[in-house]
Design goal:
CATH topology of the largest domain: Rossmann fold
CATH architecture of the largest domain: 3-Layer(aba) Sandwich
Structural class: alpha+beta
Largest sheet: 5 strands, antiparallel
Number of helices: 12
CATH superfamily of the largest domain: HUPs
Strand content: 15-25%
Strand order of the largest sheet: 5-6-9-8-7
């Protein structure tokens, strides 16, 4: 049996269905590594046999001196979600949680080589990428039997007289995996009797290619990518002219789960400055000398009225006006000071085209669009800039500049320090 190297005696958990695969792995871990894992069983409540399977698993644990933890799931909570996806999420979340609580070094699942082949075919046929078809995802979970065929697993169980429960759902053609197992695999046996070994080599080669790509991507990322305030800034360079630039950029977005397609990335890569696209969770923007990836946050179009400076809890950010003796005022680029003679009510809103104000220190008006351009703010930052107005007059561009009429005057004894959190 081709089993991986593991540190013996470590605390571990094992996903345990009671089927032959998980039964064999529980025995192998004790026999080969002196690891006696906690057995984690999920009763999904989806089959008539679910409760009896749970009882059998409890019996097995007691009979073979394993600790067992059972999760009873509620099928009513899946709310229309695909049954298999729901079960998978429930299962893996349970494994992760228990491993953390127990301080387990390993999370084991009983997948074998037949499972790998079936997963490869399923992913390849629906058009998945290298990570999925090579089995590189879910690296937190360890699959010691990944190189064992189902026949080897069964032979091990039969030689030792082990018992197990049979899941009747493994025989139904309702699920795609079972269709591949019972319909496609027999055809492949006839077309190419050695297809299982060939497919294993293919998966292994793709896995190695994936490891290489991951290493190259990490080196490129260390050189060109900077993370600031939850956004990734990617410096342009000679790499943008290479034929693989679109693949490289797209692979990076996959690594951070930005939700952008290969075509969307290419659209921005080849577009003009300012070109952008919105994925499921992130924006991709082509800036002057860099690409920016940031959360796709909708622009706030609400107006917030302030009638007192002491009650500001209804704003989408934290705002404080801290009264300070003028003698203690220390002006600086990172502090916003203003007069205590703030007219009320104030209306806080995001700026609009045509908005103007008189920036502190200037005598004439300036369009806020031009003011923000002078600051060289990225477009997706400019969209989220708030202004404070009174009777239509803009008194403050929050986080950037007050109107000249709001400056601390000669005769003022006190001043307000405006503090915004998070910083706008």
């Amino acid at each position: 049996m081709d089993l991986p190297e593991l540190l013996p005696g470590k605390k571990a958990v094992l996903g345990f269905s009671g089927g032959v695969d998980s039964v064999v792995l529980s025995q192998l871990l004790v026999e080969r590594y002196n690891i006696r894992p906690y057995l984690l069983h999920v009763n999904y409540g989806l089959r008539e046999e679910a409760d009896s399977d749970e009882q059998w698993c409890r019996w097995y644990a007691q009979e073979h001196r394993f600790e067992i933890i059972v999760l009873k799931a509620n099928p009513q909570e899946r709310e229309g979600e695909n049954v298999q996806n729901w079960a998978r999420n429930i299962r893996y979340d349970f494994f992760e949680k228990q491993a953390k609580e127990l301080g387990a070094a390993y999370i084991f699942t009983a997948h074998h080589a037949d499972d790998r082949r079936e997963s490869f075919l399923m992913n390849a046929l629906r058009g998945s990428g290298l990570t999925s078809v090579s089995g590189m995802n879910n690296t937190r979970f360890i699959r010691p039997m990944a190189n064992m065929d189902k026949a080897e697993v069964l032979a091990y169980a039969q030689e030792r007289g082990l018992s197990w429960v049979e899941d009747a759902s493994n025989a139904t053609l309702k699920y795609k995996r079972n269709q591949i197992r019972h319909l496609l695999a027999p055809v492949l046996d006839q077309v190419e009797p050695r297809w299982k070994g060939g497919l294993k080599k293919t998966v292994d080669n793709l896995h190695r290619d994936g490891m290489l790509l991951k290493g190259l991507l990490k080196g490129w990322s260390n050189q060109f990518v900077t993370l600031r305030s939850g956004e990734h800034y990617i410096k342009m360079g000679p790499w943008t002219e290479e034929s693989y630039a679109q693949v490289l950029l797209w692979r990076f977005y996959l690594s951070i789960d930005a939700g952008l397609s290969y075509e969307e990335v290419g659209h921005v890569l080849k577009g003009e400055i300012g070109q952008r696209t919105a994925g499921r969770t992130h924006l991709l923007i082509k800036d002057r000398d860099q690409f920016i990836v940031g959360p796709n946050v909708p622009v706030d179009r609400k107006e917030y009225t302030i009638t007192t400076l002491e009650e500001l809890g209804h704003l989408p950010f934290e705002l404080q006006f801290i009264a300070t003796p003028k003698a203690e005022v220390e002006f600086g680029p990172d502090k916003e000071w203003m007069t205590t003679n703030v007219p009320l009510p104030l209306v806080i809103r995001t700026w609009r085209p045509g908005d103007k104000f008189v920036p502190l220190g200037m005598s004439g008006t300036k369009k806020i669009a031009d003011f923000l351009n002078d600051l060289r703010l990225p477009r997706h930052h400019k969209e989220h800039v708030y202004v404070a107005t009174h009777e239509g007059k803009i008194l403050w561009v929050l986080g950037h500049r007050i109107d000249d009429s709001m400056k601390v005057a000669e005769g003022d004894n006190m001043a307000y320090l405006a503090v915004i959190n998070p910083k706008l």
